[in-house]
Specification:
Radius of gyration of chain A: 19 Å
Strand order of the largest sheet of chain A: 1-8-3-6
Number of helices of chain A: 9
Structural class of chain A: alpha+beta
Oligomer: homodimer
Mean pLDDT of chain A: 82
Number of strands of chain A: 11
Largest interface: A-B, 42 and 42 residues
Shape of chain A: elongated
Largest sheet of chain A: 4 strands, antiparallel
Strand content of chain A: 15-25%
Chain lengths: ~220, ~220
DNA sequence: CATCGAATGTCGGGTGTCCGACGAATCAGT
DNA sequence: ACTGATTCGTCGGACACCCGACATTCGATG
């Protein structure tokens, strides 16, 4: 076994959750890593497109991926996911076409898992199936929370909440205002107005494709309201 | 084995999806039915409340259940689910408190599954775990679709879409306007205005806690826009 | 350093929705 | 049939948001 494979195995074990009551033996993770292929995706390329038949799913190891659908004329962003997320598994398990397109917005490293190899593996190793289950349900939970964040909230509150969630270790969010607007289902102008307010409040600093969080306190204040 | 148990087993097999590549042996369904307890819930009673520690999950066999959370002052409806849906499993698998309350809005029959009995069962029978997984992911899909339905859509379009989805075999939707408003995150008045428009258009008829769909064609026309 | 595409900041006009309020209609219980 | 509680229908004012438009600024590319 190559060292890289071991590394991926360890990474997978961490990514699929840390539930104590589901002890994961090392060979479980290794088996999963062996079943997949590590793929390097360049910025802007697609993992899959809406309508393609779902033969495989992907686990994101590095980078950000955007999920979107055509809706009428334009496209609407369903969600944006990062390392640890599993994508395409819904359609894959149901043996149907993907219901959204997945595009790497940064350079990304993903693990591609073919349906024909994954399903037998999960059936043979119940612990992996259970982990996968818990992981998928966690995703469901965060999606539901996003619904709540969208409902009955002004753009200002939504923007503040998003910045609070998305900031990295240095308090930076590297998104254009247009992208934020798409994520929230708002217009770019309204997002700009909200950012202006937060800036004048001293909660953030804004730059080109970059927002720096200065005061998390004020931010969550504007978010909760 | 009592006849009622057989019936529940058959029902469970149907409810957890019909994926051909996951053949479910009869004893799988029976084992699942045996692991749970059938509970009768009267209108208005709670299956569980937000914050309670999640010891069990529920499969709904009859009736409708409403999921809601406290948000600030009032409560906001997360979703409304019917027969076939599984609820409470997210928190249960994660060993955390329930993140929303579940209340029977009609009389309901549910199967209560204790965590301590279910987890070993799923580990012993991978097919069941996989079915559960596919079912949970389907729920995730419909939640995502609901997000899309909420974003960038007028109340009229949302109401038309909801009626199209929720009508039963006779084209009837038995919900009060206030409930519809909660489901969509809109005000009762706006829902009323949308219904008035659809009524004058000849697409629906309205009554006390009842809406009858007359013309599905016009409805989907108003929904798509 | 010149150029061009992309992103930001800002302005009015138009409108969809919320909110409070009120009366009419419907249902359930004594 | 009377009564109280719930639901429906409707109005006008307030306001957050969308949209189009335009100038400005930033960053990559040669």
């Amino acid at each position: 076994m190559v060292p890289a494979l071991e590394q991926h195995a360890a990474w997978l074990a961490k990514s699929l959750g840390r539930t104590d009551y589901l002890p994961m033996r090392p060979d479980d993770a290794v088996a999963l890593a062996e079943a997949g292929v590590v793929v390097n995706k360049y910025k802007g390329t697609h993992l899959f497109r809406e309508g393609d038949f779902a033969n495989a799913c992907y686990i994101i190891e590095e980078g950000d991926v955007e999920l979107y659908r055509r809706s009428g004329s334009g496209r609407s962003v369903v969600s944006r996911i990062g390392p640890g997320a599993v994508v395409g598994d819904i359609a894959m398990f149901q043996e149907r076409p993907y219901l959204s397109s997945a595009r790497a917005v940064t350079g990304a490293v993903v693990l591609r898992l073919e349906r024909d190899r994954l399903v037998p593996l999960l059936l043979a190793r119940p612990v992996l199936a259970m982990r996968w289950l818990v992981n998928g349900l966690s995703q469901l939970e965060s999606t539901q929370q996003r619904i709540i964040r969208l409902m009955n909230r002004t753009v200002l509150e939504q923007v503040a909440g998003l910045l609070d969630d998305e900031q990295d270790g240095f308090g930076e969010v590297l998104l254009s205002q247009a992208t934020i607007a798409e994520l929230l289902g708002a217009s770019r102008q309204s997002v700009n107005e909200a950012l202006s307010y937060l800036r004048s409040d001293g909660a953030i600093e804004t730059g080109y494709r970059r927002i720096t969080v200065l005061d998390t306190e004020r931010l969550s204040l504007a978010s909760a309201k």
